[in-house]
Amino acid sequence: MARILITSALPYINGIKHLGNLVGSMLPADVYARFMRARGHEVAFVCATDEHGTPAELAAAAAGQEIAAYCAEQHEVQKAACEGFGLSFDVFGRSSSPANRELTQHFAQRLEENGYIEAREESQVYSPADGRFLPDRYVEGTCPNCGFERARGDQCDNCGKLLDPTDLIDPYSAISGSRDVELRETRHLYLLQSKLEPEVRAWVDAHPHWPQLTRSIAYKWLDEGLRDRSITRDLDWGIPVPREGFEGKVFYVWFDAPIEYIAATKEMDSDGWEAWWRTDQGADDVSYVQFMGKDNVAFHTVSFPCTLLGSKEPWKTVDTLKSLNWLTWYGGKFSTSQGRGIFMDQALEIMPADTWRWYLMANAPESDDTAFTLEAFTGAVNKDLADVLGNLVNRVTRFASSRFDGVVPEGGAPGEAEEALFVELDRRIPAYTEQLERMEFRKAFAELRAIWAAGNEYLQAAAPWTSFKTDKDRAAASVRTGLNLVRLLAELSAPVIPFTAHKMLAVFGIEDAPSWPQGEARALLDRLPHGAAFTAPDVLFRKVEDEQLAEWAERFGAPR
RNA sequence: GGGGGCGUAGCUCAAUGGUUAGAGCUGGCGGCUCAUAACCGCUAGGUUGGGGGUUCGAGUCCCUCCGCCCCUACCA
């Protein structure tokens, strides 16, 4: 048994997440966590809401709420949506927690003691009308390069030129529109990443098995030379900087957010958390896997490691990164701010969690951005889930109920059709297992689908409805194999469709969390006690009708 | 501007430089009748974004052009 630490990128607090966010980190992490638990490993699956930063303050203001109350409420909203999707976090914490405050301040102190922190004076754009300093992107104005009038302070959206807020002509606040903006002096703490470059490079060098994309991003930052990075902000909401002269300032959200991975573990287990995170406290044998979107890779391969390595304390660092591309809404962007696409709460209103889980994971954006369309979703639900899997379970259990009195029949022995099934499963199950281990989700679930289809092929070949008329033992052996197959498929499918797997196991009164099938198909397909009663389940997946699809397309504004 | 990635069948995706570029869905044909008009089998479908090059051999390597995505350190 191994110990597996799994973190999902933290969903930001400013509103419920859409399907793209879900499949970008939380869902694949959940599938992996469930798979690893089923294999008998000890898993800590950690997630949390990321609650600090300017966008959170603005979202709270827009909602007319105090920031703390807003975050508390949105945390519960996101937590409920995650539960609805069956995301099996061992903890879903908050980056605003006392644990994170304590740890973030601890890291800052250690970094300072080690000479990696320096206070620097600088001037930033301040808006009296808003009563706040403005991050670069919240300053807008006319682009000096192309004349575009709504260029942002970090980059012009029209010509793409990278800008500094002071470059803008006629700058104004993007928040209030006020043109009364000025430069003010302020002091901030800088993390001297430049001094940590050798350590970080050596650490990256020590991980040659990271994906090509991950490594190239890390080396790009290293090769350009790590720049010192401001880790504090002039905001009210955040983790206070415990230093004289920094009253009213907080740590930068990107400094404290990854530390929440650790703090959330402490929220989960205030006594045992160090065994996951401190290599001197037992974490040296932990395997740590991070899931994130492609935009997040640099922060996980360079920035956060700077914090950990610079502390000179024995913190656990990531072993394996899984980064995903974007899910797109019909080829365009899902957008939280513009409400474009489908959001987690809406998704659960219209279809069960497992249908989304299956579609999203079987089509996960692993090698490139992938288009989500309602038509493809509907097709996957109807074909893969309703026809291939759901109908298989239905036809087996219904036939067994009507012909064999609702018990697992006795008699007969495996014949030609069964032997062929054994051979196929003994090839496919190890292949599927290996793809899951490698986190090659699309390939894994193509294999799982093929395993479902193998069940239908088997039934077609065995044709117990025919043999029942002439050779009841033959039919009994086939039906018994079919029923065992339902159980086996439940176990194999549980990481991706846990709710359905539970229903399939309940057919045989099995309530325990499924464990991963070990051994040969011949034995796996004869585990149910002969003569044991079972209960045929209701239809597992209802099909989506054309009218329903049209209604959804209308509701969500699907491009046509 | 710089760096990285991607572009393959109508759609979503595979393919250590090596036979005739493969799956699933969709379409067409046939079979079965246990089952949610489901299932099983067969089949159709390609100038691998354009052009050039290296090689005995290129979807794969090189150059170039086109298009899309990510990063570029104060959005997170």
From TrEMBL:
GO terms for cellular component: aminoacyl-tRNA synthetase multienzyme complex; cytosol. A motif ('KMSKS' region) lies at residues 333-337. Signal peptide: none annotated. One of its GO terms (molecular function) is ATP binding. ATP binds at T336. It is an enzyme of class 6 (ligase). Its EC number is 6.1.1.10. SUPFAM superfamilies: Anticodon-binding domain of a subclass of class I aminoacyl-tRNA synthetases, Methionyl-tRNA synthetase (MetRS), Zn-domain, Nucleotidylyl transferase. The keyword Ligase applies. Zn(2+) binds at C143, C146, C156, C159. InterPro entries: Anticodon_Met, Met-tRNA_ligase_1, Met-tRNA_synth, Methionyl/Leucyl_tRNA_Synth, MetRS_core, MetRS_Zn, Rossmann-like_a/b/a_fold, tRNAsynth_Ia_anticodon-bd. It comes from the Bacteria. Binds 1 zinc ion per subunit. Its main location: cytoplasm. Belongs to the class-I aminoacyl-tRNA synthetase family. MetG type 1 subfamily. PANTHER family: METHIONINE--TRNA LIGASE, METHIONINE--TRNA LIGASE, CYTOPLASMIC. This is Methionine--tRNA ligase.
